[in-house]
Amino acid sequence: MKKKLTADFFERNPVDVAADLIGKVLVKKTSEGIIEAVVTETEAYGGQDDPASHAFRKQTPRNWPMYAEAGLTYVYFVYGMHYCFNVSVGKPGQVGAVLIRAVQVLPDYVPVIGPGRVGKLFHFTSSDSGVQTLKPSSSIFFEDQGFAVQNVQSSARIGIQKALDKQWRFTGTILR
DNA sequence: ACAGCGATTGACT
DNA sequence: GTCAATCGCTGTA
Fold first, then answer.
1. Per-residue confidence at A1, pLDDT binned at 50, 70, 90?
2. Nucleotide closest in space to A101 (CA vs C1')
3. Protein-contacted bases of chain B (C-beta within 7 A)
4. The whole model's pTM is what?
5. Mind listing the pLDDT tens digit for each residue in A10-48?
6. Strand ranges inside A2-137, DSSP E
7. Contact, A7 vs A134, CB < 8 A?
């Protein structure tokens, strides 16, 4: 039983979506084949309320998906070598995104830990940014495959100096 | 125009 | 534990 996630899932505040994405499956279809992985670690990012967010100041050619409709991919290039994958979330007019930090690759549950490694696994590049995952024809999307999740915990986000009081990082264990 | 650094990783001491 | 890789975004001038 595979149910593709729809707009009502992503049109909520980033913290709720980040928590609920644990255990959901990220899918990318390419000419090479299909890549599927269960999400095990996420981080929520907001807008003007979140000093650690790329969207704290203003919209730019890079971060525009965070301002646009929920369900858009937001892929950014960092440290001159890594691509990090986010999905834009929030009700229309709300700014935010969820970063995918770790997954387990199906069907063997091989762990891939770290946003740069997730980007490498899915071969994400800048051309994958701004893609609408909710479109029926989209080659990148999330789906619910019915995985049960245990021990979802929140903690401070990794790799940032600001807003360390916000516990917007989520980790969980996949039951199988 | 330019210096500094980032939602990171891998290699090396 | 420390540090290089490598480039676009950002703040300052």
1. confident
2. B7
3. 6-10
4. 0.95
5. 999 999 999 999 999 999 999 989 999 999 999 999 999
6. 3-4, 25-30, 33-45, 73-78, 82-88, 97-105, 110-113
7. yes
